[in-house]
Amino acid sequence: xxxxVEYTPEGVCTEKISFDIVDGYVHHVHFTGxxxxxxxxxxxxxxxxxxxxxxxxxxxxPCRGANSCPHHFALAIEQALQECAEE
Amino acid sequence: MSLSHVNRxxxxxxxxxxxxxxxxxxxxxxxxxxxxxxxxxxxxQNDAAVNGDYxxxxxxxxxxxxxxIHIELGRKHFLDYEKALLGCMAGQVLxxxxxxxxxxxxxxxxxxxxxxxxxxxxxxxxxxxxxxTLVDYRQQYIREHGDExxxxxxxxIQGKLLRxxxxxxxxxxxxxxxxxxxxxxxxMIQSVSGDVDQRLMDAYGSKGDxxxxxxxxxxxxxNKRTFMIYxxxxxxxxxxxxxxxxxxxxxxxxxxxxxxxxxxEEIVADGLMEEAARPFYIQYGIGEVKKYYKSLVxxxxxxxxxxxx
Lengths: 87, 309
Prior knowledge:
Strand content of chain A: 25-35%
Number of domains of chain B: 2
Number of helices of chain A: 3
Number of strands of chain B: 10
Radius of gyration of chain B: 29 Å
Strand order of the largest sheet of chain A: 1-2-3
Oligomer: heterodimer
Order of helices and strands of chain B: EEHHEEEHEEHHEHHHHHHHEE
Order of helices and strands of chain A: EEEHHH
Shape of chain A: globular
Strand content of chain B: 15-25%
Largest interface: A-B, 14 and 19 residues
Largest sheet of chain B: 5 strands, antiparallel
Mean pLDDT of chain A: 92
Low-confidence stretches of chain B: none
Number of strands of chain A: 3
CATH architecture of chain A: 2-Layer Sandwich
Mean pLDDT of chain B: 92
Low-confidence stretches of chain A: none
Helix content of chain A: 40-55%
């Protein structure tokens, strides 16, 4: 299964998060906007990781209150996995 | 009242923008990027793994700890593993040494990506409203994204165009006004970013090849061009009967007040409105250059002749 995702978060510095889920693993993560170094770091560390595990680890990471770019990345992954299950 | 003024308004056609910057040809890679991304399939790779294939592996080190990794060959995220896995087949067990540690790699699956062929039938099968053929999709893409593309290109060439424009102007510049403008720009950086000298060194002397005086001189020349764009923008606005709206008037007062620490009442009472209005006229001038640029822009793509924005 190959799913491409473009997600627009709200309330954080990142304007867009794009990535692919390939057979349940995350690839090609890209953050548009946001803290350059940190988001590049998250993208690299996420490459090839199990999508469910990744979402579990990133969810709830705070930055601006309870919100953060990694938290939204987790939400985007969960949403994509949900859509994959429904398809 | 400003002593500096425009003697002769420049002709924007003299900007001589190269055709390749406004006659834009869009490739299918760009146009169909989202369609291709959203319609990729995976299939089992029956041949030896090549770059672009996805390999699921279990890696066991000397410690006995096993981790599962999903690797795209050729991506260079897991370079050592990728080198070992190129040419592998599903079910294989490989031995490799990483950082001096002997590792066992069990290749679980190898899959290849199947791209959707770009054909009229495949595009029609996606059931997008009003889209039956590849040309339909290309035309819709130009309609929906043309302006955004033009904005991106203008943003990239704006600096060069404005430098050219300044060189075309016939302007009488009052030296005191220009020096005062330069001082104000320095003061603005100081109030926003702190150490203005350090900011100038970072911006123009980061290679360590320029003195502070040289960096300030470069900044002065940029401010001179900006001041000329302001004068031209103001003359153009007056020529076109363009006045600030109440909202724009309020915005320039707020901005000036924020930067210079003056109240709006003080700005008006001290006759500083002309100075406060400069950003408006600079943006107006840039807006006119952008409008001229966009009047030239045309898009073409496979099967589509050049059409205006």
